[in-house]
Amino acid sequence: MPSQSDVAKLAKVSFMTVSRVINGKENVKEETKRRVLKAIEELGYYPNAAARALNNNKTDGIGIVIPHAEFMKVAPYFLDLITSLERNIDRAGYHLVFKLPSSLKSTADYTQLYQERKVDGIIVLAPSVDQWLLRKLSTDKVPSVVVYGRDDELDINYIDANNHKGAKQAINYLISLGHKRIGMVTGSTTLICGRDRISGYIEALEDNDLPVDKRLVFYGDWHPESGERAFSYFFGLENQPTAIFCANDHMALGIMRSAIKNRLQLPRDLSIFGYNNIIYSGFLTPSLSTMNQPLEEIGEKAIDLLIKTIEDPTRPKEKIMMDTEFIKRESCTFPRNSGRIVIKPKDPRDLKPEIRMGPVYPHPDRLK
How high is the pLDDT of residue 303? Predict the structure, then answer.
């Protein structure tokens, strides 16, 4: 493997001149710089990243950390977001360091990626609402941007989708069609996006003088199976919903599958609205109405903001909220005229909502 000394010998310059060229120093003549770059190309020399980090106090690395790896299974749009992040990282001349919880020994490792000079900054995707990681990033002054998470009380950069507004828009649409009993299948309330979609649902009902009935809120877990359980629960009620809003498209798929198995005509018998606009949602029958996330724009803004913070750690932190896009398709229509729909669930346990351990959001006092 060629060394920096081999480059210096071929270019007929000193070792330090090669180092200056590699590290982008300006005090090198243009003709000398061309000779060094030509020698590097001829020899196929790759500068040592660790040495460059020592010389420049930079690694040219950006870390992406996903605290909840299981979320990737039920949020495949995250793959599109990561692709956008990687593309913009490469465009900016950095390289990607990707970390899942399984590759980290302890919670301290999240910020040690920066403190040990393995990366120059960190992107954190969808942290829990307990915010311990966000507090640590702020306390340790790590150049970072939080995506799909936030805390306005902390001095951090964040970019988040306005899920409260998106959920409210979805419910207002269902109300405009004439629906008065609208069920909701929530996502995990340990994530801020899950809480935001619940609060948007509640606010839309309250703004339209409709009761917020706790019996119409089923606490799901983002997976299609919880959509199936929600369907059995809702249609075991005496006063059933005529529309169901799901906090993601995967749970909407579970609702639709159960509805079809029970011979319901969609959307005549039941309107269904999803969230996230996964690739399959437009290919269903009926196609699924949903909310689209601006993933490409979020990825671009996140990397631009992180690089600005790396270059100037003292710059004021930015807090950016981005709107989602309403996607109207075929899965929603006017409320059914028929009365109560009787189904026969395979498992009697499906008639009960999931047992929740610990605190539940929103607080039950808000649900009448």
Answer: 93
